[in-house]
Prior knowledge:
Blueprint: H1 9-28, H2 36-40, E1 44-49, H3 63-72, E2 112-120, E3 123-131, H4 140-143, E4 150-152, E5 158-160, H5 170-174, E6 181-183, H6 189-192, E7 201-203, H7 209-213, H8 219-223, E8 229-233, H9 234-248, E9 251-253, E10 263-267, H10 271-284, H11 306-354
Parallel strand pairs: 1-10
Antiparallel strand pairs: 1-8, 2-3, 4-5, 6-7, 9-10
Amino acid sequence: xxxxxxISRRTFFKRTTAAGLLGxxxxxxxxxxxxxxxxxxxxxxxLIDLTKCDGxxxxxxxxxxxxxxxxxxxxxxxxxxxxxxYWPQDKVEDWSDKRxxxxxxxxxxxxxxxxxxVEHNGEEQEVYVPRRCMHCDNPTCSKxxxxxxxxxxxxxxxxxxxxxxxxGAKCRDVCPWGIPQRQAGVGLYLDIAPDLAGGGVMYKCDxxxxxxxxxxxxxxxxxxxxxxxxxxxxxxxxALAYQRAEEIRGYVYGDEENGGTSTLYISTVPFExxxxxxxxxxxxxxxxxxxRPGMPVNVENYLSTGKGMLMSAVIAxxxxxxxxxxxxxxxxxxxxxxxxxxxxxxxxxxxNHEE
Length: 355
C-alpha cells in the first residue's frame, strides 16, 4: 500500500466531506447546496455522472465504497454456523469469509465501482460505473416479496427489513439488475423453520435512509471527491440529467429502465456498449457469480407483464397473511422474553431477601 492509500478514518472523512460538498456543486452546476428540508421531504433522485468518475484509481478502494462500508458495517450479517443448505436446493450462499471483497455487490459490500474498456468513436475509453440499488419507481422486489419485507418510503428509497426477510431471493430473481445479495445463517428463518426452509437474509443499499431522515446526504454522495454523485429532488435531478447529457452529447440511463428509477446515470458512451462490455468481461473471466450487474437498456418492468401481474395478485394475500403471522410470532416471543426476565428478577429478589 502506498502513502496515498494509507489514510486514517478521521482524515478520510475530513477529505471526503469537503470534497463531496464542493465537488458536487461544481460538477452538477447547482447554484446552491441541497437544503436539509429537500432531503427529508419528498421524492429524491441520485445523479451519477460517469464523465466525472475515475474509480478513485489512485487509491486502493473508491471513496464511495469505503464510505458505504463504514456507515453500514454495524448492520452487516453475523451468521450462525454450520450453515444449512437452501432446501430443496443443494447450495448455500455464504459471503462471510469474503467480507473484504469490494469488486461486486455482496451482503458486506452494498456499492462497488465496475470498470470496463469500451471502443467508442474510434478509440478505447475507460468507463467507471458506480453500482448499487437503482431504487425503482415501481420496484418489482417490493411488490413480489412474499413476506412484505421490502418497502419504499416517500423519499423513493427502497429498503429490506432484515428482521422480516427469509432470504428466499425472489427480489433478486425479479430485479433486472439482480441487486440484492443473500447471506445464509442469519434472519427470522432460524427461529421459525431452520430445518425446512434454509435461507438467510437479502442485503442491499437503502440510500442511507437514516441519513436522509435527518437531512443528510447518503454516505457515498458525501464521500465522492469528484462530485460524480449528487442528490436532490427527483424532478430537479431528472432535468439536470438531461441538461448535462445534452451538453456532453451523451446519454441518460435509469429514467426509462424498469419503468423508471430514482438513480440516473449520464455518460458520453452509449449504455448499450457499456452493458455489452460488462457482459464480455464477465464471460472472459468466466464470472457467473451474482453481484456484478449489467446495464440493460429499456428493460421492461416485470410487473407490467401478464405473468408479473398474475404473480403479484397471487402473492399479495399471502404476503399479508405472512406479515400478520410473523407479527404475532414476534409479539409472543417478546412477551415470553419479558415474562422470563420478570420471573428471573423475582427469583433474584427472593434470593436476595433470604440472604
